[in-house]
């Protein structure tokens, strides 16, 4: 049975016709420990503005029975049940069963390899609730939901409203949850299993953490940090949006085999990969903070106020991504969050926005299938950067006032872009229509350079720039360092803008200092080479980041060689004072050596990064990150031997060293088997599989590809790790068949829902054993794929084609 994707026209027609009063959803999970089935009874009370009219309800689960106002309904098809002869007030009751809980959408059953315990989670964005129970699965039909969940007696059940009444049954327990506030169907959730639970009271909120029992020790280790961040985030958003989170209970549930995190109201679901088995690095602490604050921001942007249709997805995702960095910088110890954003997300967005899959932040969305294709770098990091520019453009005080007015006016309702623009225009006194069209309705990235004529400085845009405010920093040498002598903000409205107030004879002028806007820059020909030399000498993490991002962008556009970019980033790495970005710089430098450098330069550039890692390892605070970097870039027996010596009892580092040794052709199978027996991590088998993936052996490659790409036994959050080890340089003969198998798999890459589709399409894409002809074949294959696969494949193929050009492998 095919599932039809809901179109905007259908959603508008249905929303004009009906209003949902409430959902009462009864979910039975008692069959899951031994079988695959989730049974649901969905009872929907709704009104109809045109009695006698007809519509449909969404249900992609197998329907056992369905009645409308007591009258039995005919079976549906294409994931829809027709509803004829609607009354003014209606009660729909649908009993359904979903048995595809291993690889299907909406609900997933996972078995912990450590103890055989079963856990189940649900995740419904963009419209996967109807794979589990019948509902009107569109964002603008919000209603209270009352969940009753029957589960095995040893299980704990979590839901949006918490504080369930629990009844003991024969061999089971029934959890009856209070009504939720009016929510879109995709913001609801049920998670269940024999969870380990930790609770804490904080500022009037009842905070809960859950994880599988085999990770109880890790959850307990991280609980203080997570609770602190949760308390700080709730307080910051309550003030910034002039609206406290309105529910006392706020739960966060870490589950196996989940991709990313999901902002269900009052009950955020996380991949338990965020519970780092080894001691987390500063970058991992920072990522945890940003994801936690991102999902929390959705309580306001997405749950309390929800976009009417998916063309305003950015109202959810871009705002949450912007807000998490804003909150991290202002309310937590992660004060370099915007620098992390620049070096992790924003440079990715610059690349995507200059590629074939770019699109306006706000664009018409025909149906939900197309909506699934815009959960991407344009919507997330570019959108966040544009909102950071908007805050700069209107002023923070006015921005906060606009947000407060927006939530006060639209709480528990649905909005469009215009609602937000109206609120911000009213608060700031600025006409934002031109700004909106330029930034939200137009794709592409502005690029700036400086023109110097005597003491006059002109900011020059390549083409017609968007209206924006940015800063130019002036730096002077002080010994080996650079000091900032002035920071001049410039409002841009024309291609040429005079920059006044800069001191004469500055040694370095830095465009977009403080990273206030979304725009790239270029040095003039006379200062090009100086940029590579001076980036490391700039005095702050954000100024160094702006320079490094320029160098990276020049690499991706073919204006800098891998050797130039790699050596510049390695020098920045050696000078960096912010722990938050050491790991991102290491990742970029290693990526340049491995993926962008011509084969003749690869070993030398890797060795330079390895040397920087050995030097960094002398700092106790950076030792762990440095040794991880060395595990990726070690090129000699001396490096590997030193790494093993330094690893000591650190099992994580030993795994990383084994993966690298396997990549280099070492015989590590016996050692890997031995390490597996003494690693307490329940998911250690994935580390052993990663070692096997790296081996230059035909039979092993076949086995790993089968598990990873065909059987899909590798959890989605680990596919990237295994795939990175699989696609290795200097293994082209072994890898060539799998480049073909990837293209053969494209028509099925969407199976399992949006998150899996994006992950498999991007992570499995071949990085070696291909050429420019292959890239063209991949682009042709994308045209026949569903939208989320097509967009992801176009973006990834463009990035890899740039790598090939940098390697000298194509024109």
Automatic annotation (TrEMBL):
Reaction catalysed by this enzyme: Release of an N-terminal amino acid, Xaa-|-Yaa- from a peptide, amide or arylamide. Xaa is preferably Ala, but may be most amino acids including Pro (slow action). When a terminal hydrophobic residue is followed by a prolyl residue, the two may be released as an intact Xaa-Pro dipeptide
Enzyme class label: hydrolase
MF terms (GO), sorted A to Z: alanyl aminopeptidase activity
Name used for this protein in its record: Aminopeptidase N
Keywords: Aminopeptidase, Hydrolase, Metal-binding, Metalloprotease, Protease, Zinc
The Peptidase M1 membrane alanine aminopeptidase domain, residue ranges: 230-437
Domain ERAP1-like C-terminal: 509-794
EC id: 3.4.11.2
Keyword Protease on entry: yes
Aminopeptidase N-like N-terminal domain mapped to chain residues: 116-186
Source organism of this protein record: Streptomyces prunicolor
Family named by the database record: Belongs to the peptidase M1 family.
Reported cofactor(s): Zn(2+)
Matching NCBIfam families: pepN_strep_liv (TIGR02412)
InterPro entries registered for this protein in UniProt: Aminopeptidase_N-like_N, Aminopeptidase_N-like_N_sf, ERAP1-like_C_dom, Pept_M1_aminopeptidase, Peptidase_M1, Peptidase_M1_aminopeptidases, Peptidase_M1_dom, Peptidase_M4/M1_CTD_sf
